[in-house]
Write a structure and sequence with these properties.
mainly beta; five-stranded antiparallel sheet; elongated; Jelly Rolls; 11 strands
Length: 170
């Protein structure tokens, strides 16, 4: 019968303790919380046609020469003693024509705007992804809101699709 060495027992004990500490981290620590695009709310539905909430996201056509906002509320876990922190926000979106654009993203903690970002230009007919970096982890006291500003030009309707909005809690 082979004897177990003291080094093997020590190594096993260290691994057990490290695993226990790692597994006991808060559930929201470094976790992406995702909202499918279909959970968004269009602020002025009258400015759109063909507003469709689908399993994978939100699909709508913006009428010419009009603007709109699409709002997302991200579930935020919070205990009485710990406010979650957010640094990164991920967005996935599409536009059908060059005359319309996703112009800006606004990030909120409840009713307080904490960041305003101009959207980079994306090619018509292709999906774009963007990761917004808030610069440092920010404590969230009320809940994360993400608002997306869309515009359409004079040349006709622009179809927009929003596939995913995610927030990384730290």
């Amino acid at each position: 019968m082979k004897k177990i060495s003291l080094n093997s027992v020590t190594l096993a004990l260290v691994m057990l303790i490290a695993g226990t500490i790692w597994m006991s981290a808060p559930a929201h620590a470094f976790t992406w919380v995702s909202m499918q695009g279909g959970s968004g709310k269009v602020e002025i539905p009258e400015n759109t046609t063909g507003l469709r909430y689908k399993g994978w996201g939100l699909d709508f056509s913006q009428k010419p020469n009009l603007t709109n906002w699409v709002h997302y509320q991200i579930p935020t876990t919070r205990s009485s003693s710990i406010s979650p922190k957010v640094r990164y926000i991920y967005l996935e979106y599409y536009k059908s024509t060059h005359i319309g654009k996703i112009a800006a993203f606004h990030i909120y903690d409840g009713r307080v705007k904490i960041q305003e970002i101009d959207a980079p230009a994306n090619t018509a007919g292709s999906w774009a992804t963007m990761v917004i970096d808030l610069g440092e982890p920010r404590s969230i006291s009320k809940g994360v809101g993400v608002s997306i500003y869309v515009t359409s030009g004079a040349g006709g309707y622009t179809n927009f699709e929003i596939g995913n909005v995610k927030v990384r809690f730290e």
